[in-house]
Amino acid sequence: MVKLESMQNLVVEPDTHYSIVTICNWETYQAAFEEAGQAKGQPQDNHRTTTGQPQDTDKNDKNVKNDKKKESMPSPSFDKFWAEYPKSRRNDKKRCSRIWKDEKLELIAEKIITALKSHKKSEQWMSNIIPNATTWLNQERWEQELSRGKITPRAVYTNPPPSIKAVPEEEG
User: Fold this and answer.
1) Domain limits, the chain
2) Taking the model in full, what pTM does it have?
């Protein structure tokens, strides 16, 4: 500011609480910019006023965002898988869709859907022992062989096996 004062471009009038800064010949400088077709306060050339400001946006940016949304939409084969999977065990469609896309399961969709139909007819699934859809996809259950024997739910025992002994309760 001292340099600008010495060049007589501004005048500083100190006061007890603050200082008043007056820019000399302001109108002269502004008239030159207005004649050049520039808005007030803007630089004469096309350079940015300060660094770190956001870039100018392009109307096509919105279209790029829309394209990303289209990419994240489930594929027709995923929709077919989702419709085929038992409703009681569908847990997170968005996550399943992401797995389907990330693992490129689109390429083997028919194999997966055929295996799913077989699993639905298995004794395990008929006795309502069905994994969540995300588990089924993450563990690639379509690759597993279906067991031929009768399946008993692990969590429910009518008669506990001999290896599990009842522990008598202590009387208190």
Assistant:
1) 2-35, 73-143
2) 0.47
